[in-house]
TrEMBL record:
Residues 18-127 form the Ribophorin II third domain. It comes from the Eukaryota. Its main location: endoplasmic reticulum. The chain crosses the membrane at residues 181-204, 216-235, 241-261. Pathway: Protein modification; protein glycosylation. Subunit of the oligosaccharyl transferase (OST) complex that catalyzes the initial transfer of a defined glycan (Glc(3)Man(9)GlcNAc(2) in eukaryotes) from the lipid carrier dolichol-pyrophosphate to an asparagine residue within an Asn-X-Ser/Thr consensus motif in nascent polypeptide chains, the first step in protein N-glycosylation. N-glycosylation occurs cotranslationally and the complex associates with the Sec61 complex at the channel-forming translocon complex that mediates protein translocation across the endoplasmic reticulum (ER). All subunits are required for a maximal enzyme activity. GO terms for cellular component: oligosaccharyltransferase complex. Keywords: Endoplasmic reticulum, Membrane, Signal, Transmembrane, Transmembrane helix. Residues 168-260 form the Ribophorin II C-terminal domain. It is a multi-pass membrane protein. This is Ribophorin II.
Length: 262
């Protein structure tokens, strides 16, 4: 009788039907493994931002009948290899499958783990019905879901930030010269048509006889538009060019109305 009591008390919790799956952000299983207790993981599991690691298992007794044991504690404990940080993730019990599931992602560990690295993963199991619990070391899981921290200087300098300069690749990749010639021709054609229209209407000959301030101002605005286009090709700053072009449109319209419709 005493021997049977001693044997009954020596039984322990044994994780069974263990499955470890690495699931990406699209929900596809990238890596999966079915280790047998007490074997460790043989494949590499790396937790990245957006992915998750799902651990499922059953809890049975190490006795001959292998009965299922209701657990009061079932958690996955992550410990950094340098022993500087540690966190645990609780499990959820499924009555339909009579199994436990642990989901590990960035959201569940970011409050306790703030750095990437290799972490030892242990299943910690306990039950009131069994005197001896179980600590099952699954192996090492690589966590790579945190951005690299940038060291900040203690001395903070306040002021405007330096201008951002664009660095072109070397050697520079230029467009075909034929494309440049065609584009330049398309830009100059409207000006050529404009002055041709003025010459055919007799405006240029008339302006030489009785030119007014509005006439000269109108031509000045047209030349200013030409200079804006040239400055755009030189400086490649589109937003200042658009602003000055919008401002220049108002006097061009006013002086053009007075010069062309006398």
């Amino acid at each position: 009788m005493l021997a049977s009591i001693v044997l009954a008390s020596s039984y322990e919790i044994k994780p069974n039907k263990i499955s470890v799956n690495l699931v990406d952000k699209l929900g596809d299983v990238v890596t999966k493994e079915r280790p047998e207790y007490p074997e460790k993981l043989k494949k590499r599991f790396e937790l990245e931002s957006g992915s998750k690691i799902v651990v499922e298992f059953e809890a049975i007794s190490s006795s001959k009948d292998h009965k299922h044991i209701p657990l009061n504690q079932a958690a996955l404990v992550l410990t950094s290899l340098d022993k500087t940080s540690q966190t645990s993730i609780s499990s959820k019990f499924s009555e339909a499958k009579n199994s436990y599931k642990i989901i590990m992602n960035k959201l569940k560990i970011e409050n306790h783990i703030a750095s990437n690295g290799e972490y030892s993963a242990d299943l910690v199991l306990g039950s009131f019905s069994e005197k001896t619990g179980a600590v099952y070391n699954l192996g090492v899981i690589n966590i790579n879901c945190f951005k690299s921290s940038i060291e900040k200087s203690d001395h903070i300098i306040y002021g405007p930030k330096p201008e951002i300069f664009h660095t072109f690749s070397a050697p520079q990749k230029m467009v075909n010269p034929l494309v440049s010639v065609i584009y330049t021709a398309l830009i100059t054609i409207p000006f050529a048509l404009f002055f041709t229209m003025l010459g055919s209407s007799g405006f240029l000959s008339a302006i030489n006889k009785n030119a007014t301030v509005s006439d000269y101002s109108f031509f000045g605005c047209i030349l200013s538009y030409a200079s804006l286009i040239i400055s755009y090709f030189i400086g490649v700053k589109i937003f200042p060019i658009l602003f000055y072009g919008l401002v220049l449109a108002i006097p061009t319209f006013i002086f053009g109305q007075k010069s062309l419709f006398k």
